[in-house]
Amino acid sequence: MADAAQKQEVVDKGIMHSIAQMKGEILAHGPRALVSMGFFAPEVIAPGWSLRTPGLLTESELNFLDFHAYPGRRRLNEYPVHLGMLGCEARPVVLGEYGASHHQYMVIASVARAVTGWVAHSCRFGLDGWLYWTQWPANPDVATEPEA
């Protein structure tokens, strides 16, 4: 497909179709289920990807959008712009995956400061919820609980 606009339209329609099919299957088994799907903001993480996330907020059949962002990689204020969520009330948006990369935050106290600061800063953008992911990769040799 030589025309970039046609290629983008195929990608956009394909993801919307996939979401609709997935939601239909989920609702067939749980008619009252809320359906979400998680996304990184490709414009921030991987420029040049074909997925346009703003349309997911306004045109998809998702009940809420779950976006993924980690402190230490990019500035948080880049995400709402590229996700198209500033001023958008079409559906709830949650920070559905956040945590801290072990190579950036090796001490559990710095992890705690980073992720709580990230959540506090995210409140400025009208998020509707948060789901903590992990300190990745989880290292069994790192104590995550204070010693008694």
Q: Could you please describe the fold and organization of this structure?
A:
The chain has 148 residues and is α/β, with parallel strands linked by helices. It has a domain at 36-136. It has 5 helices and 4 strands, in the order αβααβαβαβ. It has helices spanning 4-29, 42-45, 54-59, 78-83, 108-122; strands at 36-40, 64-68, 93-101, 129-136. The longest helix has 26 residues, at 4-29. It is globular and about 45 Å long. Residues 144-148 have low confidence and may be disordered.
What is the first-to-last residue Cα distance? Answer: 63 Å
Radius of gyration: 18 Å
**Can you give the mean pLDDT?**
81
How many alpha or pi helices? Answer: 5
> Which class do the helix and strand fractions yield?
alpha/beta
Number of strands: 4
Shape: globular
Strand order of the largest sheet: 1-2-3-4
Strand content: 15-25%
Quick overview:
With 148 residues, the protein is of the alpha/beta class.
Topology:
Layout: H1 4-29, E1 36-40, H2 42-45, H3 54-59, E2 64-68, H4 78-83, E3 93-101, H5 108-122, E4 129-136
Parallel strand pairs: 1-2, 2-3, 3-4
Name its key features.
single chain; 148 residues; alpha/beta; 5 helices; 4 strands; globular
